[in-house]
Design a protein that fits this description.
single chain, mainly alpha
Length: 284
């Protein structure tokens, strides 16, 4: 009686075959770069969502590092006051000047305060603040965490038994959620005051008339809607910056590339989320 034969063991690919497979994959990605980029974007989006959930869980898990959060608020928010104020100042000046010029053609330039305050509160205040201040904040977060990544400081934190997400990501996430709404409220006030000055000088519109028309038009929903937008923008900027910082490879060159990608991704994400939130608010 013949003995049963065992199936042959699976052959492991040789190193040459592995290199050939990698070369074929690279060639395919170069031929269809759009598909490869879409797959890479989905993977990054999933990684960001996973990091965001982990950071939120760590945020409600004691102990809460209030000292680290306060430090990040100072570093990300207080040091951004100058750029936020300048952007809001010139936005209010240009916005009021343009609207007053076109409204004067119809003889209703006295209503410019209504248009300016609604535009600032609903759109320009939160969006301009997120695009300008957010670019500074997001790139700074990526550069700092990326430098820690390439110098293996994040690995050292994990080796010491600490959680890098709780220690590095959660304080920055909470700080951005505080900083962006505060800077947006400041931008609303500065832009409104700057607009009143320029229309008073150019079209002799009294300050009391300007502010009265603005206050009679705006509602708390307009103000808090813009503040909520800036809160969401802050979370987006923080999580994009942290994820790109944690994903840095390739030494100092990789840090620079990740910083550039952070600004681009955060800016596009802010504009997309603004569109969907505006559609949501218009439904109420």
């Amino acid at each position: 009686m013949s003995e049963p034969t065992l199936p042959p063991a699976p052959r492991r690919p040789a190193s040459g075959e592995t290199e050939l497979a990698e070369m074929v994959q690279q060639e395919l990605e170069s031929i269809i770069p759009f598909t490869a980029r879409i797959n890479r974007a989905w993977m990054q989006l999933g990684g960001m969502l996973f990091m965001f959930v982990r950071a939120c869980v760590r945020a409600v898990t004691p102990p809460l590092a209030l000292g680290s959060i306060g430090y990040q608020v100072v570093m990300l928010g207080v040091r951004s006051l100058s750029i936020a104020t300048l952007v809001a100042l010139f936005a209010g000046l240009v916005l009021s000047l343009q609207f007053a010029y076109f409204l004067a053609k119809f003889g209703v330039q006295h209503t410019v305060g209504k248009v300016v305050i609604l535009t600032l509160f609903r759109e320009l205040g939160p969006v301009l603040t997120a695009l300008t201040v957010g670019a500074r904040i997001g790139s700074g977060i990526t550069a700092e965490l990326g430098s820690m990544k390439v110098t293996e400081q994040i690995d050292a934190i994990s080796a010491l038994g600490a959680d890098p997400i709780k220690k590095l990501v959660t304080p920055r996430l909470i700080a951005c959620g505080i900083v962006l709404p505060a800077l947006t409220a400041l931008a609303d006030v500065v832009g409104l005051i700057a607009g009143s000055v320029v229309v008073n000088q150019q079209y002799d519109i009294p300050f009391d008339q300007y502010f009265r028309s603005a206050i009679d038009t705006v509602s708390l929903m307009d103000f808090w809607g813009g503040i909520f937008k800036s809160f969401v923008f802050g979370l987006i900027i923080a999580i994009v910056g942290c994820f790109k910082g944690f994903s840095v490879t390739g030494g100092t060159e990789g840090v620079g590339q990740a910083t550039t990608e952070t600004v681009a991704i955060a800016s596009v994400a802010v504009c997309l989320s603004d569109f969907f939130m505006t559609k949501l608010f218009m439904a109420f």
